[in-house]
Design a protein that fits this description.
heterodimer; A: 16 helices; about 45% helix; B: alpha/beta; 2 domains; four-stranded mixed sheet; 9 strands
Chain lengths: ~400, ~190
């Protein structure tokens, strides 16, 4: 909510001060530093200063061969390592002309959606925590723990999985895993309505987020916002739906978009593209992901009935031990929890790529941060950071 | 519109635009570096092309020349295009497109930071990921990793340390040795 009219702000104008928020501020979600110039509580400008986590991952990739780079993609975005793995694998496969078998695609989609659920749980929980409600965060962490347990069973790791490989996945799932995923999906749906009762319908929470950080659809497209941030502004664009990769074209799911200001919608008191809309899109996406998990489990059960030597039953395509990729370049994108993750890879015909560029969702969110927060109160800046779901290693790489 | 149609539309106005054949991956167009802004504005504003979204902007170094690649996408027309500008390694300069797409702001700062590509008329061209006083362009192929930054050694192996640090280390070692030997000498028999 902006503080008063412009005339009131002018009359209340006092001396401006420069405040350094971060890099170790609890509500900046990692090592983001904001150079806030404010007049009292009103923000004149909040310039993001990034790079504290710059590890030169893109440059490291130029010294490694295509397979060796996979563990680094885990570290690009640690909250959704499966999706990052998948995005990189898709790009290399597109360049090298490898087609993974059906079972591998199903397993990838399964782990993608589970990871999307866990990533969104962290986001909405952390946003609630930023707004002063601590309990929802613990609920989110608690449900996420179950996803981590599932991933531990499938690949041994709980945070950086390195599970998706070029041409398939690293291991087949253990026995009884599909039943556990189904169980999780059944568990998750009532838990989400519990979560909604706990915080989504809370009127204080709603008032903190409505009308804060409003982004119109045109602005969102111009700033290159992606994923839930773009959909929160009412632009119906989901790469899973509109440019389907893997097996997403066989699955039924909806693309939730922001509907702020619509009296019959879920955000009647807000306006289109405010922070509450972005929050709601994530809550709805969890439900959609649960639906997808159920469908994929059914498809995997069918797949299990195939004879063991059927090509569709394999979890890894045949990829040469020394993977050489033809000369060429590719820009391949994938829908991650934080939106479009694009890998631009240039190959010069050798075993190592000439250039890897990673375009991530948080990068564009940080880009438009200064314009979005102009004129807000300092407390609302925190709300905007939370609603953008910024993960800093993704920005700095 | 498919790729061929977009290329022929561009070639009508700028015959120097090239669309080389590729062995693998995506097709792309190469545009002259001095006309990028003009061509990209046309790509954005022409109603049939309508590239309203800049997906990514990447600098790249092949060792001989620098590339600047714009990945464009249109929400209205649902098509994509890769546009490449080839820049010389000495004095790479190009017009900024931050006026066309707000998304370009940080991408251009990153390309400047890593590859030293200067964007004319950019609203705020500073280093993005590296500290402001960092020397050199880390993305380039001939970049040498600095041995130290503000007196902090950056390489683990002792041989890469600067002479000052080597000298200080040697002094410290000598001092430690002297302390140790005097302690041994003073030890009661």
């Amino acid at each position: 909510m902006t503080a008063g009219t412009r005339e009131e702000q002018r009359l209340a104008h006092t001396e401006e001060m420069v405040l350094s928020m971060g890099p170790h501020h609890p509500s900046t979600h990692g090592v983001l530093r904001l150079e806030v110039t404010s007049d009292g509580e009103v923000v004149a400008s909040a310039r993001p200063d990034v790079g504290y986590l710059h590890r030169g991952i893109e440059k490291i990739g130029e010294f490694l061969d295509y397979r060796q780079f996979m563990p680094y993609t885990d570290r690009v975005d640690y909250l959704c390592a499966m999706n990052s793995n998948h995005a990189y694998a898709l790009a290399v496969e597109k360049l090298a002309g490898i087609k993974p078998p059906l079972r591998a695609e199903l397993l990838r989609v399964l782990v993608d959606e589970l990871n999307r659920i866990s990533s969104h749980l962290i986001c909405i929980g952390a946003l609630a925590m930023d707004m002063g409600a601590y309990t929802p965060f613990l609920h989110g962490i608690c449900h996420r723990e179950l996803v981590n347990d599932l991933f531990e069973e499938v690949c041994g790791a709980r945070l950086t999985y390195n599970y998706v490989t070029i041409g398939g996945v690293a291991y087949d799932i253990p026995q009884g895993f599909i039943a556990k995923c189904d169980e999780f999906a059944v568990y998750m749906q009532p838990k989400m309505s519990e979560f909604n009762q706990l915080i989504t319908a809370n009127s204080i929470f709603e008032q903190r987020l409505c009308h804060v950080g409003v982004i119109s659809p045109e602005q969102a497209i111009n700033w290159g916002l992606v994923g839930p941030n773009l959909r929160g502004s009412g632009v119906c664009w989901d790469i899973r739906k509109h440019e389907p990769y893997s097996v997403y074209d066989k699955l039924q799911f909806e693309v939730p978009v922001g509907d702020g200001g619509d009296p019959k919608g879920s955000n009647p008191r807000g306006v289109l593209g405010d922070s509450y809309d972005r929050y709601l899109v994530r809550v709805k996406e969890i439900n959609e992901s649960v639906k997808i998990v159920k469908q994929v489990c059914a498809l995997l059960r069918e797949n299990d009935k195939l004879p063991a030597d059927s090509p569709d039953r394999q979890y890894q395509a045949k990829v040469p031990a020394r993977l050489k990729v033809k000369r060429g370049e590719v820009y391949c994108r994938c829908e991650n929890p934080r939106g479009e993750t694009g890998y631009y890879i240039v190959s010069d015909g050798t075993e190592k790529p000439l250039r890897i560029k990673i375009r991530t969702g948080s990068f564009s969110a940080v880009n438009c941060f200064e314009d979005v927060t102009r004129g807000l109160l300092i407390g609302d800046v925190v709300a905007v950071i939370g609603s953008f779901d910024i993960v800093l290693p993704e920005v700095d790489r | 519109m498919d790729f061929e149609a977009i290329v022929s539309k561009l070639k009508e106005r700028w015959p120097e635009v090239e669309a080389p054949a590729v062995e693998a991956g995506d097709r792309f167009v190469i545009v002259p570096a001095e006309k990028t802004l003009e061509i990209l504005r046309f790509l954005k504003e022409d109603p049939e092309l309508c590239f309203d979204n800049l997906m990514a902007l990447a600098g790249a170094d092949t060792g001989r020349e620098l590339w600047l690649v714009y990945a464009l996408h249109s929400f209205k027309q649902r098509h994509k295009l890769l546009v490449k500008a080839v820049l010389p390694r000495e004095k790479p300069e190009v017009e900024s497109v931050a006026k066309l797409w707000g998304a370009a702001n940080f991408h251009e700062r990153e390309a400047y930071d890593l590859y030293g590509i200067v964007f004319r008329n950019h609203p705020d061209l500073r280093r993005l990921l590296n500290p402001p006083d960092w020397a050199g362009w880390p993305g380039r192929k001939d970049y040498e990793y600095p041995k130290e930054y503000r007196g902090v050694p950056l390489l683990r192996d002792g041989q890469f340390f600067s002479d000052d640090i080597k000298k200080a280390n040697a002094e410290r070692e000598a001092r430690d040795k002297a302390l140790l030997s005097s302690a041994i000498a003073q030890r009661p028999q």
